[in-house]
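Kindly review both lines to help learners:
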Amino acid sequence: MVYMIYLLVFQIACINVRNEEYSGSCGDTATFSFDPETGQLTISGTGPMKHYDDDEHSISQPWKSYRSLIKKVVIESGITLLGQYSFYRLGEVTEVQIPETVKEFGIYVFSECINLKTINIPDGVQILTSWLFSYTSIETITIPNSVNEIRIRCFSDCSKLQSITIPNSVTEIETNIFDCCLELKAVDLPNELTYINSDMFARCEKLPAIKLPDHIQKIYNHAFARCYALETIELKPPLEAIYNGVFASCISFKSIIIPNSVTTILASCFDSCYSLTSIQLPDNLQEIKSGFFNSCSSLESVTIPDTVTSIGESAFENCSSLKTIIIPDKVSLIEPKVFLDCKNLRYVSVPGTVTLIKTQAFKNCLKLDYFLFKGTKEPNVFPDAFNSCERLNVIFVPFDYENDKFGRYSIIKGESPTPPLNDDPFQPPTNSESEISTFSDESTFSDESTFSEDTSENPFDCKTIDANCIECTPPNTCTKCADEYELQGGKCYSISIFCPIAILHCIECSKIDGNYICNKCEQEYYISAEKNLCLFNELVSCNVIGCERCYQTDLTKCVQCSTLSNFNEKLTEDGVCSCKEGFQLYDTKCIEIEDLPSTQVPPSIIVDISNENMAHFDDAMSTVEL
């Protein structure tokens, strides 16, 4: 009987504990209750909710232990602020009701609510905070006209988001807003926006087109990188600067006209735009930066403006369809690998202002046989600058050229002959008395050389279709490519081109027994054990001081600083989290300088000298034998 009474008391106590877990405080004047039968979490009361941390910190959601049971969130009228991490990782939630009284959101409020498809944003909200809706399944969303700012990664990795309209009230949009929104197909941007921020549409793989507002002045790093479906975009004044990698890996990008208002285009802007065939550069461009057209394998020609003074390393590397290039007169040196692996390049004109041709500048230009140098003095040429240029036998120079060689090559003085339309290599005239040959016409070189038709009957060479084609159907269809190349649409492409298509987010791969194997993933991904997937490198909590998030594969390197404890949100140049102005780091926290202990004693050796502890100390000392 006594046992039964104890058991009943224990069961009642457990029920009371469970009831206490299902309800409680979540703010000074805000409370919560959860109904396990319906799966509804209700937030009631007035004023702001409390701010929480993520799963690894002590201040976590009071409903964390049963959040897998929560199916619906109802926030009642009177609540004004949804605290940070309030509903973070409620993976089973499909519906959220937010009243008009809510005017503010903390960060990560609905992040990783992976089944959340719809949500309303109340009128009056001014800021959509960082990571607010990231990793949700939202398909469409309406942003009210009260919003004027959208912060970092607000909608990033919303893999089901298909369309969105940003109202004209929005004047500031931070980085990575739509990064990795894989299904995004339509976006309306605010009319008065003056810039496109870094990674704003990066990896929006199905975005076919976008209309930029009329006032855009700058497009920042990787803004449209890996937009695989994007074919073209209209750029217009007052645009003045295009930053690093803006259109990198836009593999469907076909043509673009860059207005003359643009004075700055940074590195790798069109890197790996495999389908790019036509581009018009601005008349006053001064630099073509490194990697500018790297791996633009369909680009046959480009006119470099006369204002250009430098061409960066690997600027045209692996432009395998490029046939002719004229380097303007203000360029003084040819950087390393500028035309490396331009396997169809035949005609190059280099100004006399060039004094140095660096390592591998024209390496593997297999068809290069018409190389014109317009100067009178031999430039310095690296020994490997023309390695594997199998057809290059001579260099064309003017009549007043002062040397008898150009690097290791013989020279021909006078006007160069025009390259033939077919693939026949140039055959230099023989001269038994000297390595120097001349043509009778002493006119100066013409940079307008054109390909003349040759009517001679020769066996059809498949390499006229593509340099890497080994079997074909004349006159223009390749049927088989060389090893390490993939046949697509009658052309041969390097296997590496298909890495991000065969294995999503893979940037370097190989093919073994007909299967793609990834060797390198994008920055935020890592290779699976089987090497057939690139897995997202999830941001997780870590023990780095002041840090909120690290990549799960490197818990020693901070990616995002904590917004709590008075740390600055952005990392320093050294990659550490620093305290805000007026605060100083003390025992892993940022403390107001005026509140720091005067002696600056490290917390690890601060002793509690309360009366109670002193009594224990006296008792212990009384047992010590002196």
Observations:
- The chain has a mean pLDDT of 83.
- The longest helix spans residues 2-21.
- The radius of gyration is 33 Å.
- The helical segments are 2-21, 499-502, 611-622.
